[in-house]
Amino acid sequence: MANLPLDSIADILSRLPVKRLLCFRCVSKLWRSLIDDQDFIKLHLRHSVDSHTNHTLILKNSELHAADLACLGPFAKLEHPLMSYNHEIKILGSCNGLLFIRNIVEDMAIWNPSTRKHRVLPSLGSCNGYVYGFGHDPISDDYKVVKIMHLGRVDGKPLETEVKVCSLKRNRWRKIQDIPCVFSFPGAKGVFASGALHWVLTQKLQLSEETVIVALDLGSESYREVPQPEYKDKIFQLNVGVLGGSLCAMANYDDVRVDLWIMKEYGVKDSWTRLFSVASEEVIGPLRSVKPLAYSKSGDQVLLEHDNFNLFWYDLKKKQTDDVWAPGMPPCHAEICLQSLVSLKVNSRQHNAEDNKDIKKM
Predict the structure, then answer these.
(1) Cα separations (Å) of 37 from 25, 322, 343?
(2) pLDDT tens for residues 257-280?
């Protein structure tokens, strides 16, 4: 490969898993510089997303275990960077190979389990009710954690909220515009898709308690309502998810059936497509919730989490389910995490530029 152009070497290396790339950094100073370069990191990330490769399935019960999604095993214990009190670690978001994690005393960190690097976030006061979200701001190329806090009712007025954001570059919490709704399902984490975080909310400024999907654009830090599908039936419990980077809506009809809709063109109501339905008799146990995790490499199957307990594949061609079992796989919550080289280091020039913007606004 010594005689190949650098672009060709980069293209070849971008198809390899992170574990090998970390080893190849020792080959030469040139390869180390190439693999550490931000353009190469983005190239590797795009290839992983486009090819449905380099995905890790992370399972959480009392501990974290991980396995390659392609083979679903063997599962190995994953050591996280936070202090663990009674093993209570929550994964509150996954984006581009980075995980947002929190322990029971509300220590928080952004962590890349592939490179084993992490960044502890500044502490933030606790409150009675709150939800988090984590995603990527494509405008500033920054990663942001959002915390929406419920401040309670005052003198019979609607529930008040306060929204704060902490970005990787700024590394401090700041208040942004309040969200005009209350949460239908307190504790539900934000779902990241198409540059925005999404929650299922109830409008608090209207007499009707209509359930809506609200998006927080991480670039403009503004809210918008996302149009919903034309559901066949009207009485159901709504939740949101993400599959292959696209926003999903899951309509649960009294634990009897779950319809999974996917928004093929973000923001366009007519692009909602009902991908499939799962009936209660097709799974083991009650059908309280279904969460999409990932497509298979062929794209013919979808991996789903059922009731935060077990996993199954749904075959899109055969229209049938198949339970997943692998040696050492515990009953647990599941998350998908890309294997990426995304760095947690902040460029000092970028950091100063962001601070200067704040000074100009003041």
Answers:
(1) 11, 41, 10
(2) 999 999 999 999 999 999 999 999
